[in-house]
User: What shape does this take?
Amino acid sequence: VELVESGGGLVKTGDSLRLSCAASGGSIGPYIMAWFRQAPGKELEFVSWSGIGTYYSEFVKGRFTISRDNAKNTVSLEMSNLKAEDTAVYYCAAGTRSSVAPNLYDWWGQGTQVTVST
Assistant: This one.
């Protein structure tokens, strides 16, 4: 499965942004789809996953919404009330287990930069 993220950009504090992840080479239907992020100088951090249900990190819960369209083979991350600390490269990932651990995901996109200015 090949994953390609899009939708990143430069926004201001409090703004909203929608990231998309398009999959090819296979259907996302059987997989757990997740978003991770990595801020400069920091480790890769779990954001959210979508399987039968959804799960969010405490840092984004209530502000971010993950959704998937298996027919279109896409996953989205709707981000609202963005904060400076949300600045990071956001990665889409696919795996067979719902987990917050990045090493349990098998396929990754190249990432898209989100920068939130104050």
Observations:
- Residues 41 and 79 are 22 Å apart (CA to CA).
- The chain has a mean pLDDT of 97.
- The chain has no helices and eleven strands.
- The longest strand covers residues 17-24.
